[in-house]
């Protein structure tokens, strides 16, 4: 049986079911790390990979790759996703008025935040997406995620794992050097990813965390959020599934809401087919809404596209995703 095509023009745009199934079966990693595995491709990050990544630190410069977590974020309420609501429960006013009940003049401030775990910069955990009722490693979805949370692959298992070599593929600058921004609806191909890596003189290796900059976030900041959260966007083509599998990367993140191209590459109803292939079948951890602007500028200025990356999720027991503040250390 021939491998699924990596040419978007050859995808059957009337048959998402067949296209998804072909890639799910061709690139499935079930059992690769044992029947009890909860990390998927994060298993590619080993101590040696972290030691090598640490050697990339030369300047000590730290760049946060997180968007803001506040009410000015991009969310519009789809699937009950809202922007963070930050509320003060104790304030400096309370301290000045002396109504906090503390002795000898001490006062303080406290606060609480309410937000969906995937409202801003975040990881999709392995319990986030299912394929025909099946979760990562061939488990029944209902045996994994219940009303009590992800009982098997909760994001807490990755809390001490996601530190490795980061590689920026600035596809926006590579394909659109004048604007550094890909148009909405542009499907990034394997040829684009490999061409960008070659142009940047950077190799993708086992255990790497690949960051794909499209430039959409820069456009949204300039022109307004619009439909950034869920609308048309540049992103990876379904046909990149094989590349994501054979490169043995540990994780991948983009500066867009949904990682893959939107609208999806079909003329009939379809929703996030690449998610359906790579999360439950490859066991690939996906990051979305990362801020790659400062990093992209730094890489363009220095010609350095790899760095130490630390992107630990919050150890929220049973969560299927987590907000993060990933940092690139140059």
Quick structural gist:
This protein has two domains: 8-78 and 117-329, Putative cyclase (Glucose Oxidase, domain 1); 82-114, no CATH class.
Which key features would you list for this structure?
330 residues; alpha/beta; nine-stranded mixed beta sheet
Description:
This protein has helices spanning 16-26, 47-54, 92-97, 141-144, 171-175, 190-200, 216-223, 241-246, 273-282, 293-302, and strands at residues 62-64, 85-90, 110-114, 122-124, 134-135, 139-140, 145-146, 149-150, 163-169, 187-188, 209-212, 235-236, 251-254, 285-288, 306-310, 321-323, 327-329. The N and C termini lie far apart (44 Å). The chain is α/β, with parallel strands linked by helices and 330 residues long. It has a nine-stranded mixed sheet with strand order 1-17-15-9-11-13-14-4-16. A two-stranded antiparallel ribbon has the order 2-3. Helices cover 24% and strands 18% of the residues. The protein contains ten helices and 17 strands. The chain has two domains: 8-78 and 117-329, 3-Layer(bba) Sandwich (Glucose Oxidase, domain 1), CATH 3.50.30.50; 82-114, no CATH class. The protein is globular.
Topology at a glance:
Elements: H1 16-26, H2 47-54, E1 62-64, E2 85-90, H3 92-97, E3 110-114, E4 122-124, E5 134-135, E6 139-140, H4 141-144, E7 145-146, E8 149-150, E9 163-169, H5 171-175, E10 187-188, H6 190-200, E11 209-212, H7 216-223, E12 235-236, H8 241-246, E13 251-254, H9 273-282, E14 285-288, H10 293-302, E15 306-310, E16 321-323, E17 327-329
Parallel strand pairs: 9-11, 10-12, 11-13, 13-14
Antiparallel strand pairs: 1-17, 2-3, 4-14, 4-16, 5-6, 7-8, 9-15, 15-17
Helix pairs in contact: 1-9
């Amino acid at each position: 049986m021939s491998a699924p095509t990596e040419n978007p023009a050859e995808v059957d745009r009337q048959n998402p079911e067949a296209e998804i199934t072909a890639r799910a079966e061709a690139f499935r990693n079930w059992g690769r790390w044992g029947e009890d595995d909860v990390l998927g491709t994060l298993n590619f990050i080993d101590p040696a990979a972290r030691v090598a990544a640490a050697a990339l630190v030369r300047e000590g410069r730290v760049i946060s790759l997180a968007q803001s977590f506040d009410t000015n974020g991009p969310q519009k309420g789809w699937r009950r996703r809202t922007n963070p609501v930050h509320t003060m429960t104790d304030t400096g006013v309370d301290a000045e008025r002396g109504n906090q009940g503390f002795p000898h003049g001490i006062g303080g401030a406290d606060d609480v935040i309410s937000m969906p775990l995937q409202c801003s910069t975040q990881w999709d955990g392995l319990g986030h997406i299912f394929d025909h009722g099946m979760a990562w490693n061939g488990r029944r979805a209902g045996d994994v995620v219940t009303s009590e949370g992800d009982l098997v692959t909760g994001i807490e298992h990755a809390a001490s794992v996601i530190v490795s070599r980061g590689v920026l593929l600035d596809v926006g600058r590579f394909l659109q050097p004048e604007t550094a921004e890909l148009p909405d609806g542009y499907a990034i191909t394997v040829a684009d990813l490999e061409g960008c890596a070659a142009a940047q003189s950077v190799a993708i290796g086992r255990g790497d965390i690949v960051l794909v900059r499209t430039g959409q976030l820069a456009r949204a900041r300039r022109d307004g959020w619009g439909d950034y959260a869920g609308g048309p966007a540049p992103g990876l083509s379904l046909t990149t599934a094989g590349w994501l599998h054979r490169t043995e990367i540990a994780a991948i993140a983009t500066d867009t809401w949904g990682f893959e191209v939107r609208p999806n590459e079909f003329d009939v109803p379809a929703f996030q087919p690449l998610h359906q292939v790579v999360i439950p079948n490859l066991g690939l951890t996906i990051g979305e809404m990362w801020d790659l602007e400062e990093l992209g500028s730094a890489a363009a200025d220095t010609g350095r596209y790899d760095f130490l990356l630390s992107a630990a999720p919050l150890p929220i027991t049973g969560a299927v995703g987590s907000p993060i503040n990933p940092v690139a250390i140059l």
